[in-house]
Amino acid sequence: xxxxxxxxxxxxxxxxxxxxxxxxxxxxxxxxxxxxxxxxxxxxxxxxxxxxxxxxxxxxxxxxxxxxxxxxxxxxxxxxxxxxxxxxxxxxxxxxxxxxxxxxxxxxxxxxxxxxxxxxxxxxxxxxxxxxxxxxxx
Length: 138
Prior knowledge:
Elements: H1 2-38, H2 53-60, H3 81-137
Helix pairs in contact: 1-3
């Protein structure tokens, strides 16, 4: 019987260690997601700069391989400030919407993982202590 208790205790402690790792990973991801949610225009650094209109104007006309298939076909942008402002406002609204969706999804999944890891840790820690106490009483 002591061998079965030893295997059970090893299993219980192993689940507790894994639950702690999942908890720390989820908590870290939640903190990063909250920062992204607080400042959605800085959440993604690829593409045009959207933190200010002047930054957008400066970065919008650049030749960026992500925006152009062929550098020979890349042409200088000749939009007026009003048209550029409309484009900027549309991109800002899109970025905010995108970040809200992504952060909501991340907060939901990592929040669920966080709760599951706390539950698994609590149940297995309680179970291992019961095994240890029953072994000590015998």
